[in-house]
Amino acid sequence: MNRRNFLQNTAIAGFGSLILPNSLFAFNSQTSKVRIGMIAVGLRGQVHLDELLKRDDVEVVAMADPDDRMIKRAQKIVNNHNKKQPEVYQDGDYDYRNLLKRTDIDAVIISSPWEWHERQGTEAMRAGKIVGMEVCGAMTLEECWKYVDTFEETKVPLMMLENVCYRRDLMAIFNMVKKGKFGELIHGTGGYQHDLRDVLFNDGVQPYGGGVEFGDKAFSEAKWRTNHYVNRNAELYPTHGLGPISAMFDVNRGNRITHLTSMASKARGLNKYIVENGGENHPNAKVNFKLGDIITTTLKCENGETIVLTHDTSLQRPYNLGFKVQGTEGIWQEISSGGIDKGFIYFEKEMNHSHQWPNSKEYLTEYDHPLWKNHAAKAEGAGHGGMDYFLLNAFVESIKRNIEFPFDVYDLATWYAVTPLSEKSIEENGQVQLMPDFTRGKYIDRKTVFGSNNEY
């Protein structure tokens, strides 16, 4: 399909343009491939790499990562797909800048440690590379504004890569919300309730878990992520819970988050884990972890809705993101993550005031979102139960079709901002913190993109 056809499809879809007509960084219609560079190919980057290599409309041109072990793992994935090996940039932490200088790259996927996100993301936009940015990463509110200011200066688009928005049950609930099934929305909950102790402490002998090391002696995320638990007391991972609820509540698209308040419990789980697995004399048993075991954040929306996020990753528990959506006509509540049959649903009028919790499978099957209904087979085998297929497909297809990303730089800034705002609220004993309007008033007229284009 040539460039003209893509633009015609864009007009039919009715979305705004992703790329300005006079842009120098347009989709490479001559080769019919979106040319991508990977910045960081750790375990998350490798999942993205594997998914991208399955596609005939993508060419992974280059990858940058100073970790030789991760580069070798990524190269093995490329070999498994019988694809041409990308050019490698691994000469220190800043060699990714040489990747950004290339003229044969349309877009980059950034999956680096959180503290690198803003620097690499804004530098990529200034280099004219469309950005797919992994979750989390705001150290300060100023960083959130840097994303927005850089986009508005360069007009280079950025997509927030929040995969949970594409979870099948959540997309079905989103579909029901948009069809008015829940009436007027009132309240939603979500979070990151996931035992990460074997991720936060990893000696590198096994890819997932093992030992009680973190920092320089550790492997993968334990090299850097655990240090945030030592140094910060905040909602460190808000986007998994907030992203899907934001889509349902039209945040930044006719609605916005106005303020939040946050509280932290005491911190006990990580020290207990170290003592039980490494002994009370292990040096890490004396580490003072600043992050409370449970962080609870309440957000208020301009249109009157409330949202509660829970960060719970330092204690033993089964995985569950804790979603709930409640409106004037009905309520859905997640039991455990993993499928359309893992929740309860209740509609008072339809259920004759029974006050019983039927399983949600029948409703979620009936309201299965068209994206999943039509393309579930393509998502088989993709990361996180198929969510990663839809996530990267939206990124690639939006570039090809020259249409707006479902989640953009304004969403990223808003979702990321929860971390520094919650940190300040906790420091001030739960004091209310105002959420900036990163759209500078544009949210009033912005239209929903996510879930509204069945062409994917």
Question: What does this protein look like?
Answer:
By secondary structure, the protein is of the alpha/beta class. It is built from 15 helices and 14 strands.
Give descriptors for this structure.
456 residues; 14 strands; disordered N terminus; 15 helices; 8-stranded mixed sheet; alpha/beta
Structural class determined from secondary elements: alpha/beta
Sheet with the most strands: spatial strand order? 13-12-11-7-10-9-8-14
Q: Describe the oligomeric state of these chains in a short phrase.
A: single chain
Overall radius of gyration: 22 Å
Main beta sheet strand tally, sense and closure: 8 strands, mixed
Question: How many beta-strand segments?
Answer: 14
Shape: globular
In sequence order, what are the helices and strands, one letter per element?
HEHEHEHEHEHEHEHHHEHEEEEEHHHHE
Alpha-carbon distance between the two ends: 15 Å
Helix content percent band = 25-40%
Q: Outline the low-pLDDT stretches.
A: 1-14, 21-25
Rounded mean pLDDT is 91
Roughly what fraction of the amino acids lie in strands? 15-25%
Number of helical runs? 15
Architecture blueprint of SSEs:
Elements: H1 3-13, E1 34-39, H2 43-53, E2 58-64, H3 68-80, E3 87-89, H4 96-100, E4 107-110, H5 117-126, E5 130-133, H6 141-154, E6 158-160, H7 168-178, E7 185-193, H8 197-200, H9 225-231, H10 239-248, E8 257-264, H11 269-278, E9 294-301, E10 306-312, E11 324-327, E12 331-334, E13 343-346, H12 361-366, H13 370-379, H14 387-401, H15 409-427, E14 433-434
Parallel strand pairs: 1-2, 1-4, 2-3, 4-5, 5-6, 7-10
Antiparallel strand pairs: 7-11, 8-9, 8-14, 9-10, 11-12, 12-13
